[in-house]
Design goal:
HATC_C_dom, 5 domains, five-stranded antiparallel beta sheet, 656 residues, five-stranded mixed beta sheet, alpha+beta, Nucleotidyltransferase, domain 5, DNA-binding, single chain, zinc, 11% strand, nucleus
Length: 656
């Protein structure tokens, strides 16, 4: 006797589930089992909760098509024939569309479809799959290659922005990622720390070593900072020019320093890293932020050419000048007024109205950032700009203790004028990612000229005169002998923006240095050529001892030697000097990239020494608030992962 068949299931949900028994069904996407009994609500909830990337729509297709694939510019739709209701209806079978389109397009797509049944299952992402019941490879999950790409993007949170790895455990972050792609499984903190991060670090180190082997000469910069747990770190970065005169940098190491480190232990650490990266005898210049222990390690122990970071020195001089008692008290008073307006909504509103009444475009007062003198300048500049509005508002608010006196306004205006001229120095440096060693002599000349002009001003207040004197003494102490530094002077001379001008008709010593360096390269080339020529001559003599060209060849070789020494070097240097200066905002390396064949030996000197820098860190960290934020985040890293994260942050371009 023929067994009675079970009740036919008409819901399109059954195209995504397989019946196990009368009370249980298995999901064809994740293979999990669910109870359904007499309704499919439990199954539908599972799809909405776990597979929200699908929208199931039952439609009536064209006759004669059992399985039809539709394609549009916005989505891919695969139709799977559903079981027929009755024998009479088999000529026009119903189909189930599994639409893989963005959520915002669902209503538009549904409007254009003849719908018999259309339950919407919270579609989020576009995932196409075919033969859903049989082909497990087409399930809407993040596959290995795509998952690796997403993981790499996730790692940028920790590498580029120094966010804590524990971010992946935050409920809000996980919810955000799930809303973007419910099928993406967020890696755990442990997996990131023990698998993803070490793998990326190892790959980056290997690529960095490949690049490092191409270095012929380099400048190293050292940077120290202290973490929030009072651990000290030392970062060592190499800078060099490639064969096409492009500036490159590679972070070599980020090391945890001993608690009681000395100049000798620092020198050992630096020397160990230089040897490890095969840069021994390739260091032409070194820059540090000015700490005595690092300077002594480099100058006294390693015996390398050393220079203290120019911008750190400049900041120190300006900071000392602004710290004299009358100025410090005045700036503190300005901060107090600014804080009052920023923290009192009513006072801030009154200030806004006062500016309108004074026919001034309404602006907000600025608060300075500690340890950044240029932010103090911006605060004072805006304060002076709103002088009338501030005075009126303070009077209305009856806050006389905040009232700035006339002589104090005079000092603030004079300070604004002085700091504005000094700010131009930081802008000149900030135009470049790194400050080249050709800039300090030029900028120092500008600083000395500013002091001379200020000294000649008879109408300055006594307080401002003290500031000018403090600046002058500081500049003299730190920058008066920059032209005697062989690397700085040669780099300045070889910068096509400056050449001999910064030396004020005293370019003789630096020109001689450059000529000597060119002669050195000429001799190296000559020795290489002579070695090859002698080999050819001896080989030819074995073959043919007598030659009609013997006398000519000897005379030509002698003539070549006579003209390949000092005279050739002098001529090439003179031609370079006579060439026109380029605009001071132009890129000197771009100029050398174009003219290297016009000055073949001088360009070799440039490639050897022009990698030298005048600052120990990128200018973006020195002058911008975003740079300070990154440094602050970095200081909060735990020591366990600092080495890897900082290395990847500095060398992220090498990952590709």
């Amino acid at each position: 006797m023929e067994q009675k068949k079970g009740k036919q299931k008409y819901s399109p949900i059954w195209n995504l589930f397989e019946v196990i028994d009368r009370d249980c069904a298995r999901c064809l996407i994740c293979a999990k089992r669910f109870s359904y009994r007499s309704t499919t609500s439990n199954l539908r909830k599972h799809l909405e909760r776990k597979h929200g990337t699908l929208q199931v729509v039952q439609t009536v297709p064209r006759l004669g098509n059992e399985v039809e694939e539709l394609t549009s510019t916005q989505s891919q739709i695969f139709q799977i024939a559903s079981p027929p209701k009755k024998a009479a209806q088999q000529s026009t079978p119903q189909h189930i569309q599994i639409k893989l389109i963005p959520t915002q397009q669902i209503s538009t797509q549904q409007a254009n479809t003849q719908q018999i049944y259309s339950p919407q299952l919270n579609l989020q992402n576009a995932v196409a799959f075919k033969k859903l019941k049989k082909d497990k490879k087409s399930l809407p999950v993040v596959q290995n290659e795509a998952e690796g790409s997403v993981n790499d993007a996730l790692m940028q949170l920790f590498i580029r922005d120094f966010h804590p790895i524990s971010t992946v455990e935050d409920e809000g972050f996980r919810g955000f990622i799930t809303s973007l792609n419910p099928t993406y499984e967020i890696p755990t903190k442990k997996y990131i720390s023990q698998t993803l991060l070490p793998a990326m670090y190892q790959k980056c180190v290997e690529n960095a070593r490949i690049v490092s082997r191409t270095i012929t000469s380099a400048c190293i910069t050292t940077e120290c900072w202290t973490s929030s747990s009072d651990e000290s770190f030392l970062a060592i970065t190499s800078h060099f020019l490639d064969s096409d005169f492009y500036f490159k940098s590679v972070l070599l190491s980020c090391s945890l320093l001993e608690e009681n480190f000395t100049s000798e232990s620092l020198a050992d650490e630096i020397h160990r890293n230089i040897n490890d990266w095969e840069l021994e005898n390739k260091i032409v210049f070194s820059v540090s932020s000015g700490e005595d222990y690092i300077a002594n390690a480099i100058k006294m122990v390693l015996k390398w050419e050393h220079f203290g970071c120019f911008i750190h020195s400049l900041n120190k001089v300006i900071g000392d000048a602004l710290s004299i008692k009358p100025v410090e008290e005045l700036i503190s008073k300005v901060r107090q007024v600014v804080s009052f307006f920023r923290n009192d909504p009513m006072a801030s509103s009154e200030l806004h109205i006062s500016q309108i009444n004074c026919n001034i475009e309404p602006k907000k007062l600025k608060q300075d950032v500690p340890m950044m003198w240029n932010s103090t300048f911006y605060m004072i500049q805006r304060f002076v700009e709103l002088e009338n509005a501030i005075s009126c508002t303070v009077t209305i608010q009856e806050s006389n203790y905040l009232l700035i006196q006339p002589d104090e306004w005079t000092v603030l205006k004079e300070l604004t004028k002085i700091l504005k001229s000094l700010e131009a120095i930081t802008k000149a440096a900030d135009q470049e990612t790194y400050m080249l060693a050709s800039l300090p002599i030029v900028l120092a000349n500008g600083l000395f000229e500013i002091c001379r002009k200020l000294e000649r001003s008879a109408d300055l207040s006594d307080t401002t005169k003290q500031v000018v004197m403090k600046l002058k003494n500081g500049f003299n102490a730190r920058f008066s002998e920059l032209t005697k530094n062989p690397v700085l002077s040669v780099c300045t001379f070889l910068d096509p923006r400056f050449k001999t001008i910064p030396f004020k008709n005293n370019e003789g010593p630096v020109k001689k240095r450059v000529v000597d360096l060119v002669i050195k390269h000429l001799n190296l080339d000559s020795n290489a050529e002579n070695g090859g020529a002698q080999g050819n001559v001896s080989q030819n003599q074995n073959i043919e001892e007598l030659s009609v060209w013997e006398v000519f060849d000897k005379s030509a070789a002698s003539s070549k030697l006579e003209t390949s020494g000092d005279s050739r070097a002098q001529l090439e240097v003179d031609r370079y000097i006579e060439d026109d200066l380029i605009n001071r905002t132009s890129d000197p390396l771009e100029w050398w990239r174009i003219h290297r064949f016009n000055y073949p030996h001088l360009s070799e000197v440039v490639r050897e020494i022009f990698c030298s820098l005048a600052t120990s860190v990128p200018c973006s960290r020195l002058f911008t608030k975003s740079g300070m934020i990154i440094m602050d985040r970095r200081s909060k890293l735990s020591s366990g992962k600092v080495k890897q994260l900082v290395f990847l942050n500095a060398n992220d371009k090498l990952l590709s």
